[in-house]
Amino acid sequence: MSKNKIIDLKKPGEFCEDPLTELLRNGARRLIADAVQAELQELLNQYSGLRNEQGYLQVVRNGYLPEREILTGIGPIKVKVPKIRDKSGQGIKFNSALLPPYLRKTRRVEDVLPWLYLKGISTGDFQEALHALLGTEGKGLSASTISRLKGIWEQEHETWNRRSLKNERYVYIWADGVYFNIRSDDARQCILVIIGVTEQGRKEFIAIEDGYRESEQSWSELLLRIKAQGLSHAPKLAVGDGALGFWKALSKAFPKTKQQRCWVHKTANVLNKLPKAVQPKVKQALHEIWMAPTRTDAYKAFDIALSTYSAKYPKAMKCLEKDKDEMLAFYDFPATHWQHIRTSNPIESVFSTVRLRTNKTRGCVARHTILSMVYKLGQSAQKKWRKLRGFKLLGEVIRGVQFKDGELVEPLIEDEINRAVV
Fold this sequence. Notes:
The protein is an alpha/beta fold. It has 2 domains: 6-105, no CATH class; 158-398, no CATH class. The chain contains 17 helices and 15 strands. Helix 7 (263-271) packs antiparallel against helix 10. The radius of gyration is 28 Å and the shape is elongated.
């Protein structure tokens, strides 16, 4: 018997390469079985009142489907999905959300190669990484797969870029230019990113494209392209940093869209112009502005900050005063949306992982590779995004209902209108 083979005492004659991994697989098998049984019991409870004339249950357990093997992040796991019998003839079936029909490998495994690459593992190191993650059972997943995957990502991005937006409507959008270590004749290339939120509250990527810095020309080309793809409804609000290129392009492409400057970017820009000893106090002063309950209170906090620090730190306070009205545009929208629309963080948080990948790469990454990586990571992250808080109010925003200091402005009733005219 080789030294690296250990007998599984529960099943004599079988071997495993790592007793700890086998223990984890057994634990996962039990957890999956318990979770599926809980799903089944929930369905049975739902139809527990469905009985025949004799009082017998009409929806009951009925054995298991044939056992099948699913490839997971800790190797293959054998699973059995229970069945039910519907005696009422209504066609009631049990479909496990955890183990849907025809599932043969988990999404984690399908995403493992993109994530390994994005996390900084080079193509040549994939053999060892895959063996550590999946063992020898990771059939069809080899180091050379990443090369083919990169080509597939590029094709997927190109197809996605040409998709129709005719039936889409985005209430809010976030825009930013994301810079990476790109192999290019011009180091000022960046990735232009736009994320939007639908009327149903779903956040999703609208555009991922490269551009020259964050110039007006680059943003104009991108905005005009998505309009040509069918995006005819102007967003109600756009959120971004102070880069002039985007705002100039936006005012031409969607002139009715209101503008909200990102408070995270503004805070960083102001603090960068201050001595470190003063930064905590000024940061608190800025916090009191954008956390004020009303626009009037925010303007008062603005005035206090400017009068307190302008004499000693004129550059910082001039930066703060710039785009003053655009910094407070969020007061015209529902208060439950404020935490989402005061900053462009949805974009920044997503691409920290891609920056990690480019920082670990010894040489610069090619432009088309970065684009496909950004697209692939974005699509993966998008699946986990939660709906916008208070999304039910998005319909009111679309209909043009007015909000003041985050609260709905009640329209005057007819008698009050008549009384006001008299």
